[in-house]
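hey so u asked for the seq, here:
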Amino acid sequence: MRSTRQNPKPPAPLKGVRIFSLSLNLPGPAALQRCRAMGATCIKLEPPAPSLAPTESGLTGDPMSGYSPTAYQAMHQKVRVIQANLKLPAGQRRMHRELAKADILLTSFRPSALKKLGLTWPELHQRYPKLSMVAIVGDRGTLAEEPGHDLTYAAQAGLVTGLDLPATLYADMAGSLLATEAILQAVLLQHQTGQGGYREVALGDAADHLALPRTWGAMSPDGLLGGGHAGYRIYPCRDGRVALAALEPHFARQLCQLAHIEWTGFEVMRDSATRQRIGIFVSTLTCHELDALSIRHDIPLHTLK
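ran it, structure tokens below
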């Protein structure tokens, strides 16, 4: 098992940039977290907490505080959170005070909701010409009005292949990366033109991007990355599992040598007999032994107890 990675202090390319977010749930706050790590000043406006929520519950106007308090706390470190009801004049005034000071507005509403709040791009651009807007939507065009969540976008992209839920929130997290990229693009264009710009990020597009290897056929069962390569598979071992990634010929050859398989060329890794032999070899070893083998013989693998 790989040791914990030490991350050096990142640079601050967004220092001096002020981001005002109305985005709830996961993609927007996760993007805000990344921008905060790059030095941006981040302010988020949330609706008031549910009226019946106990104060000690930790619930806020963002549903994520109820879905996963741990995720909510992690994403909002060093983010200034304010509360206001945007359906009331006082809330609108509070929002516009922040918009007047912001470089970027980040949203995650349906287009119809933005229209009700007076936050369509033409309206914003006329009032705040130097402000840029990054709008996270579910899908593009008329589909942006349809309800959806991470699971539906992942399923639409072909990333849900059985009855088990996906291992993570693929569309939401990929969407947060695309939103971060859109914010960086907006800042660059602001510097070039002196004017604000509009960028739209669709969670459906984010899921589709993650699914591209499947679309290309790279993950088909007989493909090298989909199980057709005996050195690129998950095998059971004595006390867990091991993710083997001996893909390149020099790694594959070394693996064959350890498993006492004659190396007759790269095609041997497509042979079902090779998969069987490697499976037998791995099944005799513990996770600790496989970790040691990886270091000693320079074979890419990761053990899972």
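DSSP finds 14 helices and nine strands in the chain. The mean pLDDT is 94.
lmk if thats what u needed
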